[in-house]
Specification:
The complex is a heterotrimer of chains A (303), B (505) and C (362). With 303 residues, chain A is mostly helical. Chain A is built from 12 helices and no strands. Chain A has one domain: ABC transporter involved in vitamin B12 uptake, BtuC (Orthogonal Bundle). Helix content of chain A is 70%, strand content 0%. Chain C has 2 domains: 54 residues, no CATH class; 231 residues, no CATH class. Chain C starts with a helix and ends in a 12-residue tail after the last helix. Chains B and C meet through helix 10, helix 11 and strand 18 of B and helix 9 and helix 10 of C.
């Protein structure tokens, strides 16, 4: 399947993978009533510490775990500052972004003694050698996808199931809609908000890990390129639903993929790279009219 | 032995005594009405029962056994459930979801939507509630929302239901539906406490009435058939005789401010219905009413904060553009009802607060530059004239006492040349001494020919100051009269919908 | 003694300064952890950063010139925050202004010095201001959150300027992305020869004074203050919220754009892709440490300038990278933003026996 459609589709799915993961994380955060503005920082943490973990252990999967762990850690910083110390959620989220963006280059210099690139480390490659290749017709195509893509779909679907089909998910949604009402029903509001934020950190971290360990095998300063913020928009676009996150991510991933397709054409590369952001901006301005986020975002149950 | 006994409950909030050695009993299968004015302590007493407020003293006994209720879940475990005055619902979620969350159906972690629906549906049918269980709460009427709250209690198999001001936002028909439900609950063996200030409903539904006033249980065990609304009103308010001295207006001029047939509807009981008001120079028109009957909306309309095709406010016969800036600069003064959120900027200095709203006047601002000297001298003058207790005019206003904050707000407006004044809750949170001073200031303004509209939940205040009284109930002016024409008790009946127009419905 | 101390404690300016100092101290403490991890003594390193930098002329000059762009971006963030607007688009506004100044500086010939410089500076401010106008309009008329739109505009603008200096505006004889050198007539004068210090710092201080005058002497500043402190009360008393938001957003982004101008017209002499060393986001820390007071921003900018200059030295002579500064700055935002957190930590200090005396007790 060497035709142009396969190439575009493949690129789209690749670009969509980190978006699906991060946006699903964002869904959890907002559904629990906490702003997802820290997603960018959580992705950076995941991307960088994933590489660090892989470097220190020599094992890519250990790196993944480390990356995810630090994504969660940064998320909890945001969560604790906002939920317990009642900091304005935009500021607590932005401070996570600033901290992650500052720590990564610092540690790169300290450990690798270079400016913005780490060396190559063990990474996660696509599933070329796996059983998928045996599947008739689409096997060749499917096997070119990274494991992370399948994980992303898995987490998104599981997320959807948790939020809309389980008791615990119902309680989390209640916390996000009306924390005061939730507390009168005996629900532990703080626990749910922190859990939602932590899950956001785990998934966004995983999204970041994919960028560094899945797509490449190193961390490059600035590699997240605002995808965390894009995830915020996709989240709203997808009505705070993981399935919507998949659809939205594919849409935005497509524009992200265009730059690969048109790489050799006459269009200046900057315009292609700019396209996803422009589309995102247009969606924000014109396309989000009727979406309302959970009514209790940013609200506390005791104030 | 009573099902529930509350003995000697005391509670203080800072310097205010909310509950003073209150006893309260409840038997099984009875409907008790807990009656009292705003601030009498009825909600606080029930919040103690529900574990939301910790009493300083006293004990609660359940079926003879002493219990400790330190949080709502403890109360729910005992079978007590409280339906709050302000709905605790999630509008974006369905009726079923709102009801079951916290006590969900289903095995393990899975949510069994079908079982939940069946259970809720059977409850709806049993009590004849007429709600679509799958509808989103956002689309329900206020009465239906109320029933969802009741269903929450029933679903949790509560035996004691506390309803806090349940009829506050219901139409008369919805009130009837609620009562029918309450009667069914009673037959099913539930006990119900209704916190209310509405006499008509108390007489209609309660088996027994308890009256609270200023944190004290004035009388318990009153049987509705042995009393009447007037007597209950007297117990609630405390006085029969009008002791306040009146200073009637000497010279009333022509109409200054008029509002013609204003109707607004924001849903959920937040509305105005065909309001027509005329305020004359040198008179005080007092709007009496229990809070939540449209006063806020009326105030917003008369101060330019509500604009719309059908809103026509005229000053001296000329129609005004609806914007607060225009209203203020045309000489319509505004003392807002909520000092902290609308009246003052807490973190700003006293000096700066004293020009808020008038800061662009030539006396305070020249070509966009602040006139520091004039602002300062204005502040010094006003602080002195009004005896505002402060060390300096530069301290932030939030560090002043409530009474002094109020004085700042009043001093600011009263020092301006006014044609009309819209003033709400002028003495809320203010001690007695300041109260008298503020009243004198309002009267003095009136005698200078200002047309004054006074909105107050304090009936005494309205009766003392007004030259004409209008009672607002559910967004409508239900009665206009002269002071002295009706007794306070009779006015109270209009305020609570038990008399006149509304009683005929 | 006790009552005197209590009186000092209740003075708002003293409280804010003390609070900022403590937040800075905590942030430096966090930095010390990193220094310690790298195998050095934090005391020694901080001595080099602060003391050594200030004891040499070149050190002071470097500190001041590093502080200058931070003064602009810090003031831009601070003035927006006065109205409770969070301007996250400073990077983009800066680049936009830089490009505009680079164009005016390079392509307009035969102008005397002062008018040329003035025009180029204004071009940058206007360019930045237009970005702010767009952000503000999107917020007011389309309800689009300025947080997202300004962040997205950052990326979009940087790609556009990158295209320009890689393509149409790139001089034929240069191999790296840049615009042509500006004419000498457009250059900012160096204050001290052979250093990076230009008249930009004077412009920054002038703006600080002007902003202070705006907030304290102009009725408009009074209205801005009211909107920031109590939106509802301001609305009830006839202040137009939309007007104030739009004005402040334009002002804030114009200052960021002006920062870009000074970077191009100063030492760089042209637009390059890395003209901004993250000055936009660093401005948040500078503003936070200054308690969002425009007049205090130059002071905190200089503090961070010293930190940066010293960190350069440390970077050359030890293993510790200059990025340490960014980490300390990020921590400053955390500690300033969480008064309760800082009070909590202060409370821990208070309860250590022996420390109680120091804080004066009650």
């Amino acid at each position: 399947m060497d035709n142009i459609f396969a190439v575009i589709l493949l690129a789209t799915l690749r670009m969509a993978t980190p978006l699906i993961l991060t946006t699903t994380g964002a869904v959890f955060s907002v559904r629990a009533g906490v702003s997802e503005i820290g997603c960018e920082g959580m992705m950076i943490a995941g991307a960088f510490f994933g590489v660090l973990g892989s470097y220190l252990s020599g094992n890519a999967w250990v790196g993944v775990l480390v990356g995810v762990f630090f994504g969660m850690l940064f998320a909890l910083l945001h969560g604790v500052l906002h939920v317990i110390f009642k900091v304005n959620q935009t500021i607590s989220g932005m401070s996570v972004n600033l901290l992650a963006a500052a720590i990564a280059p610092l540690l790169i210099k300290l450990i690798w003694h270079t400016n913005s690139l780490t060396g190559n480390v063990a990474s996660i490659s696509s599933l070329e050698q796996s059983f998928l290749k045996e599947i008739p017709l689409i096997g060749g195509f499917l096997s070119q996808l990274n494991l992370f893509f399948y994980l992303a779909i898995l987490f998104a679907v599981s997320g959807w199931f948790y939020i809309f089909k389980t008791k615990s998910g119902l309680r989390m949604r209640t916390v996000g809609e009306n924390p005061l009402a939730a507390s009168t029903l005996g629900i532990n509001v703080i626990a749910y908000k922190l859990t939602g934020t932590a899950i956001c950190g785990v998934l966004s971290g995983l999204g970041g890990v994919y960028l560094s360990l899945g797509q490449l095998s190193q961390y490059v300063d600035g590699m997240t390129a605002g995808r965390g913020y894009m995830a915020m928009v996709i989240n709203t676009f997808g009505h705070y639903n993981p399935i919507g996150a998949i659809v939205g991510s594919l849409f935005f991933g497509f524009f992200d993929a265009l730059q690969i397709i048109f790489q050799s054409s006459n269009i200046p590369s900057q315009f292609l790279m700019m396209l996803p952001y422009l589309v995102t901006l247009l969606v924000v301005v014109f396309g989000l009219k009727n979406t309302r986020q959970p009514a209790g975002v940013g609200k506390h149950h005791d104030a | 032995m009573a099902l529930l006994e509350m003995r000697n409950i005391c509670k203080r909030f800072n310097t205010v005594i909310a509950l003073d050695k209150v006893d309260f009993n409840l038997d099984q299968g009875e409907v008790v009405s807990l009656l009292g004015e705003n601030g009498a302590g009825k909600t606080t007493l029930m919040k103690v029962l529900y574990g939301m407020v910790k009493p300083d003293e006293g004990e609660i006994c359940f079926s003879g056994n002493r219990v400790t209720i330190d949080k709502p879940s403890a109360a729910i475990k005992l079978g007590i459930y409280m339906v709050h005055q302000h709905f605790m619902l999630m509008p974006a979620m369905t009726v079923v979801e709102n009801i079951i969350v916290g006590e969900e159906t289903g095995k393990g972690i899975l949510l069994d939507k079908k079982e939940a629906l069946d259970r809720v549906q059977s409850l709806i049918e049993e009590y004849n509630f007429d709600i679509d269980a799958n509808a989103k709460v956002a689309g329900l009427s206020v009465g239906q929302c109320q029933r969802v709250e009741l269903l929450k209690a029933l679903y949790r198999e509560a035996d004691i239901l506390i309803l806090d001001e349940p009829t506050a936002v219901l139409t008369p028909t919805e009130v009837e539906e609620l009562f029918a439900a309450v009667r069914k609950l009673k037959i099913a063996g539930k006990s119900i406490v209704i916190i209310t200030h509405k006499l008509k409903e108390t007489m209609a539904i309660a088996d027994r009435v308890c009256v609270l006033r200023n944190g004290c249980m004035v009388e318990e065990d009153i049987l509705p058939e042995h009393t009447c609304a007037a007597e209950l009103s007297r117990l609630m308010v405390g006085r029969l005789v009008d002791l306040e001295v009146r200073h009637p207006a000497q010279q009333i001029g022509s109409v200054v401010l008029s509002a013609n047939d204003i109707s607004i509807n924001y849903g959920q009981g937040n509305c105005l219905k065909h309001i027509t008001l005329n305020v004359r120079a040198g008179e005080i028109l007092g709007i009496a009413g229990v809070e939540g009957n449209g006063q806020s909306l009326l105030l917003r309309t008369l101060t330019g904060l509500e604009s719309g095709e059908f809103i026509h406010i005229k000053l001296d016969g000329v129609e005004m553009k609806c914007s607060p800036k225009v209203f203020l600069s045309s000489g319509i003064g505004h003392i807002p009802e909520d000092r902290t959120t609308m009246g003052i900027v807490g973190d700003m200095s006293i000096k700066d607060n004293l020009i808020l709203g008038y800061h662009r006047q030539k006396s305070f601002s020249l070509y966009g530059l602040r006139r520091d000297r004039e602002i300062k001298s204005n502040a010094i003058q006003l602080v002195g004239k009004n005896a505002i207790k402060t060390d300096s005019i530069d301290t932030p206003v939030k560090s002043l006492s409530g009474g002094n904050q109020q004085k700042v707000m009043l001093a600011r407006t009263f020092s301006q040349p006014l044609r009309a004044l819209i003033i709400a809750q002028p003495t809320r949170g203010v001690d007695v001494g300041a109260m008298e001073y503020i009243h004198n200031q309002i009267l003095s303004l009136r005698d200078q020919g200002v047309a004054i509209l006074l909105v107050s939940a304090d009936l005494d205040e309205v009766c003392t100051l007004s030259d004409r009284i209008a009672v607002i109930y559910e967004g409508e002016i239900v009665r206009e009269c002269l002071p002295g024409e009706l007794s306070k008790v009779e006015l109270g009946l209009y305020m609570t919908g038990s008399s006149g127009k509304s009683a005929e419905k | 003694m006790g009552t005197q101390f209590n009186k000092l404690k209740s003075n708002p300016m003293i409280r804010k300064t003390g609070f900022s100092c403590f937040a800075l101290f905590l942030s430096l403490l966090c930095g010390a952890v990193i220094i310690g991890y790298s195998g050095y003594s934090p005391i020694n390193i901080y001595k080099v950063i602060f003391v050594d930098t200030l004891s040499s002329k070149s050190g002071i000059m470097l500190a001041l010139s590093q502080a200058t762009p931070l003064m602009f971006t810090g003031m831009a963030f601070a003035i927006a925050y006065k109205v409770k607007i969070i301007n996250l688009g400073e990077e983009g506004q800066l680049h936009c202004g830089a490009m505009a100044a680079a164009i005016v500086g390079a392509y307009i010939p035969n102008l005397p010095h002062l008018p040329h410089v003035f025009m180029a500076l204004v071009a940058g401010a206007v360019a930045g201001g237009m970005v702010g106008l767009l952000t503000g309009v999107l917020k007011i008329h389309f309800g689009a959150s300025e947080i997202i739109t300004s962040l997205l505009l950052n990326s979009i603008i940087v790609y556009i300027t990158s295209y320009l200096c890689n393509g149409p505006l790139k001089p034929l004889d240069s191999s790296s992305p840049q615009t042509p050198f500006i004419n000498e007539s457009a250059r900012l004068t160096r204050l001290v020869p052979k250093t990076q210090l230009t008249t930009a710092i004077l412009i920054a201080i002038a703006i600080a004074v002007l902003l202070h005058l705006l907030m304290s002497k102009l009725t408009l500043g009074y209205e801005m203050k009211a909107v920031g402190l109590n939106l509802n009360a301001a609305n009830v008393h006839g202040i137009s919220i939309a007007r104030i938001y739009l004005f402040t957003m334009i002002l804030s982004s114009a200052i960021a754009g002006l920062c870009g101008s000074t970077l191009v017209l100063g030492v760089n002499g042209r637009y390059v892709e890395d003209i901004s060393l993250n000055y936009g986001f660093a401005g948040i820390s500078v503003a936070a440490l200054a308690s969002y007071e425009p007049l205090a921003v130059p002071i905190t900018a200089i503090i961070f300038g010293i930190l940066k200059a010293g960190a350069f030295t440390v970077d050359r002579t030890t293993n510790i990278p200059v990025e340490l500064v960014s980490v300390v700055q990020a921590f400053v935002v955390v500690f300033i933003a969480a008064p309760k957190l800082t009070e909590f930590i202060l409370g821990i200090f208070n309860n250590i026996p022996g420390m109680k005396q120091k804080t004066g007790g009650c």
